[in-house]
Amino acid sequence: MRMRRTLAYAVFACCVVLFVVKDRAADVRGEVRSGDWTISKSEDTGKVEFSLLEHHHGGTNSHQSDWPATSFQGVDLSKAGHQEVRFTITRDAGKIECEGFLNDGEGAGLFHFHPDPNYASEMQALGFSVDDEKQFSMAVMDVGVEFAKQMKGEHLSGLDTEKLIAFRIFGVDSAFIAGLRAEGLKIADADKLVAFRIHGVSAQMVRSLRAAGYSPDEDTLIAMRIHGATPEWIEQIKKLGYDHVDLEKLIAFRIHGVSPEFIQKVESLGYSHPDPDELIAMRIHNVTPEYIADMKARGIHDLSIDQLVNMRIHGID
């Protein structure tokens, strides 16, 4: 895929150089935020991968994500062959005017950003400070005034301009927050909402855990997702007789490798329903089914799990 995109963009290189010369001349005349854009195929149906590489104050700043194909008004991305294109992305924060070329729906060109002169003052009235750098990012991520009002109305702690941008990047909105609160989670921390989105904590997850008799807090939910202690995995453990094990211990199961397969192997060696703490200790100290089987093969039978763990701790192999 990357090689194909590279070859496609090479076709446009000579034409783009002409625009670059014009663009740099504009930079000399005044303070202009500008740079290069690219469009390429996305794996998501109905979307394209849109990238902006901004040139400003001698440095570069890149933005890349999947955008709906309908975002580029007046551009037919399904058109075969070569075409010159001009399109404008209009946001509350300003307009991103683009020109360039497409070849079979993929291409490149240059953009200029024209900030809205009233945006910063409107956002400041809501308590969000916006400088030139942030305004461009907020235009790209579509942080509109109405969105800012909605988030302010959620009464979140730690909500600032950076969080608004992060919310748009990761998909935190009023519907997401309402869904979590509807499941009894009184979440009001902006940072944790972003973490929820990053790690995949959803209203469905909270609902499943509450149905199983758990009342997890926000940090526990994040830890569960980080370590893979999902409701589906918990159900597998439950089928082995471990019903309503403390969530912290289930997270420890995942951290140390206590799996359904491990439990079944230990039980097949004569250890019926080991305690969760015993299973964790076994994994921490490398008391494996193979180790137990080896002890039995040497004629060492009827050792308790505590004895096996102590043997490992003291280096008895």
Q: What is the number of helices?
A: 15
- Give the overall shape, derived from the CA principal axes: elongated
Oligomer: single chain
| Strands, count | 6
How far is the first residue's CA from the last residue's CA? 51 Å
Give me the strand/helix succession. Answer: HEEEEEEHHHHHHHHHHHHHH
Strand order of the largest sheet: 3-2-1-6-5-4
List the uncertain runs. 1-30
In what range is the share of β-strand residues? Answer: 15-25%
What value does the average pLDDT take? 90
Q: Any idea how many domains?
A: 3
As a whole number of angstroms, the C-alpha radius of gyration is 28 Å
The biggest beta sheet is recorded as: 6 strands, antiparallel
Plain-language structure description:
- The chain is of the alpha+beta class and about 325 residues long.
- It folds into 3 domains: about 1-115; about 120-220, no CATH class; about 230-315, no CATH class.
- It contains 15 helices and 6 strands.
- It has helices at about 1-30, 120-125, 130-140, 145-150, 160-170, 175-180, 190-200, 205-210, 220-225, 230-240, 245-255, 260-270, 275-285, 290-295, 305-315; strands at about 35-40, 45-55, 60-70, 80-90, 95-105, 105-115.
- Strands 3-2-1-6-5-4 form a 6-stranded antiparallel sheet.
- Helix 5 (about 160-170) runs parallel beside helix 7 (about 190-200), helix 9 (about 220-225) runs parallel beside helix 11 (about 245-255) and helix 11 (about 245-255) packs parallel to helix 13.
- Mean pLDDT is about 90; it is low at about 1-30.
